[in-house]
Fold this sequence. Notes:
By secondary structure, the chain is mainly α. The chain has one domain (about 25-95). The protein contains four helices and no strands. The longest helix has 24 residues, at about 75-95. It is elongated and about 75 Å long. It starts with 9 loop residues before the first helix and ends with a helix.
Amino acid sequence: xxxxxxxxxxxxxxxxxxxxxxxxxxxxxxxxxxxxxxxxxxxxxxxxxxxxxxxxxxxxxxxxxxxxxxxxxxxxxxxxxxxxxxxxxxxxxxxxxx
Length: 98
């Protein structure tokens, strides 16, 4: 005997679509400033770093250096975070030898 798949009601599907359109913490570009701050705090950075990231990419209208629109701001944020951590490590190493 075969099991029948449960059917979702139309209202559930409509609610899910509304949630996707309402912003959320997805990869929508441009992101909400508060979402960027939360993401940076989750990754262990400070709010000023998040604001610097948001301002920097807002200034270039969320486009790459070649003018193509950015599709996923979290990829850029993770690169920014990595670079920030590397700069902090470099400053720490340099301060030990001065």
